[in-house]
Amino acid sequence: MVEDIFKKYRNTIERFAGNFRLPPELIFGIMMTESSGSISAQRFEKNYKWLYKPEEFFQPTSWPLSLEITFQKTSLGLMQVMGPAIVTGKQIGRAHV
Known about the structure:
It is a single chain. By secondary structure, this protein is mainly alpha-helical. It is built from 5 helices and 3 strands; from the N terminus they run H-H-E-H-H-E-E-H. The chain has helices spanning 2-19, 24-35, 54-57, 65-72, 83-91; strands at residues 42-44, 74-76, 81-82. The chain has a 3-stranded antiparallel sheet. Helix 1 crosses helix 2. The protein starts with a helix and ends in a 6-residue tail after the last helix.
């Protein structure tokens, strides 16, 4: 199973490892620890307190402020990146999604 997950993401892992000068084993280890290799993994972190300007990012006509706060307190994906990191990464044009 672990070998299958590594094969599935090998090219991506190696590309990002090279981009950031990290050992591929480190990226894979974090990925397996945080999400067990599940791209759809998500976890609500109720005690997370480093929100990034949620009042500026929610859309009053689309969703309530409480939903933006919930999003920012949820870790997502293979590496379990927190919501604010996704928001600020895209805002400054550095999201590697």
